[in-house]
Write a structure and sequence with these properties.
The chain is globular. The chain has 13 helices and 18 strands. It has a single domain, classed as 3-Layer(aba) Sandwich (Alkaline Phosphatase, subunit A). Strand 15 and strand 16 form a beta hairpin. It has 460 residues and is α/β, with parallel strands linked by helices. Helix 2 crosses helix 8.
């Protein structure tokens, strides 16, 4: 067999077939590692949370806008939320609310691409043109040389993958995805932490056999490619066999009180797992709060044809409030608040003015098909997101919308500002860093924007 042919099939049968190649790709052109590694957890709300019914209530406007929810005081004087978030209200001093986020795209694909990659195109596309900030960070951080941590740089716990991805960086910089429900009693992560000595021995035997075959090919390895492959096979083997990898994903190691505090459901255990991962050294974690806990259509897209918007919010906000407040509280309680930034956002908000349409089907938060029910549509002109940790000054409000919540009237912030702020926390100067696209053209990772001063903690 030729050396090329051998390298194509030499790892067949390994449980972690793709990892040596991915690890090798990620370490190409390695640079010197940075100092202490900062991390980001992004909680993604696909479809968009209604800002009017959450972080930016407008109790004085008419009923055609306002909705049925009362407002409540928070721990921060003058900051009020709707009654749907009492737990977050009690810890509002531990995060900052940005009420003046806006972008230009009204569709889910383009809106997601604007927020996650900075693509200014307002048209929906089937796949991203630019890599998202998570993949860019993985690419840049992976160029930092050999890591002692066996865990991946970037993990998606039910990651938002529908409208974003690594684009021209390639799939090597996609997340290590955890798609199973962490709240299930038999929750497992494939290819992490072999559980028995017998499995480990079988894997070692396969690697030993491949190493024997390697000896016949060494004379042809003029560029040292097989030696490099050994290095990345070793890393992949470590990912499979190192107890730290298994422990990081093992929620059974958390006490019952902590698991209860996050919520014994998919969202709560996703965010608990996210905290365990950053605590174990993972640098980017994304988690999408979607699925059955959202209601009939499994997301936050509360058109009247999908959900009764207010029933939908009542249905999901208890789990959302519990999980997010527990994550933020935990980040501070465990001393992670300087190193770890938590961002909670969707691609846009929902229309301040309520509309009515016929339901297209019965289910959680939706009446029977044909029933007239209220909804809110897409609204990129103004929406809210929240920020915690990252060494930022918390307990504040940034920006403001008009009396109806329709437009930003103070401190407008766009996707470039959003991305630049995240990159700043990660020690990446988005005004200077470029990455070559498929045509070899240097492309800025953020075309337009700068870090939001109130959200600029210390850098990595």
């Amino acid at each position: 067999m030729s050396r090329r042919g051998f390298m194509q099939v030499g790892l067949t049968g390994m449980a972690a077939l793709s990892w040596p190649g991915l690890l090798r790709l990620r370490a190409e052109n390695a640079a010197k590692p940075k100092n202490e590694r900062t991390a980001v957890i992004m909680v993604w709300l696909p479809g968009g949370l209604s800002h009017i019914d959450s972080y930016d209530p407008k109790p004085e406007i008419g009923s055609e806008y306002r909705g049925p929810f009362k407002t409540i005081a928070t721990k921060v004087p003058g900051m009020r939320f709707t009654e749907l978030m009492p737990m977050q209200a009690r810890i509002a001093d531990k995060f900052t609310v940005l009420r003046s986020m806006n972008q230009k795209a009204g569709g889910h694909p383009a809106g997601s691409m604007q927020m996650l990659s900075g693509d200014s195109d307002e048209r929906d596309k089937p796949k991203p043109r630019l890599p998202d900030w998570m993949s860019v960070t993985n690419y840049l951080r992976s160029k930092g040389g050999k890591r002692s941590n066996p865990l991946p740089n970037y993990v998606g716990v039910n990651p938002p993958l529908e409208y974003n991805g690594p684009a021209y960086l390639g799939d090597a910089y996609s997340p290590f995805s955890v798609s199973d429900d962490p709240s299930r009693p038999n929750f497992q992560v494939p290819n992490i932490g072999l559980s028995s000595a017998a499995e480990t021995r079988r894997l070692s035997d396969r690697i030993a056999l491949r190493q024997q075959l390697d000896k016949m090919e060494r004379a042809f390895d003029r560029e040292g490619e097989l030696g490099a492959l050994d290095q990345f096979e070793t890393q992949a083997m470590t990912l499979l066999t190192n107890p730290k990898t298994r422990d990081a994903f093992d929620l059974a190691k958390e006490d019952a009180h902590t698991r209860d505090r996050y919520g014994r459901n998919r969202w709560g255990q996703q965010l608990l797992l996210a905290r365990r991962l950053v605590e174990s050294g993972v640098e980017v974690v994304t988690s999408s709060l979607s699925g059955p806990l959202c209601g009939r259509v499994a997301n936050w897209d509360d058109h009247a044809v999908n959900h009764h918007v207010f029933d939908g919010l009542r249905f999901r906000m208890g789990n959302y409030d519990r999980a997010v407040s527990a994550l933020i509280d935990d980040i501070y309680a465990r001393g992670l608040d300087k190193r770890v930034l938590v961002v909670v956002t969707g691609e846009f908000g929902r229309t301040p003015k309520i509309n009515f349409d016929r339901s297209t089907g019965a289910g959680d938060a939706s009446a029977a098909a044909g029933t007239l029910q209220p909804g809110r549509d897409h609204w990129p002109r103004a929406f809210s997101n929240i920020w915690a940790g990252g060494g930022i000054q918390t307990g504040g409000l940034i920006g403001a919308t008009d009396k109806r919540g329709e437009d930003v009237i103070e401190r407008p912030c766009g996707p470039g500002d959003f991305l630049s702020t995240i990159y700043h926390h990660l020690g990446i100067d988005s005004s200077k860093v470029t990455i070559d696209d498929l045509n070899g053209r240097p492309t800025r990772i953020v075309a337009d924007g700068r870090p939001i001063p109130e959200l600029m903690g210390r850098t990595a």
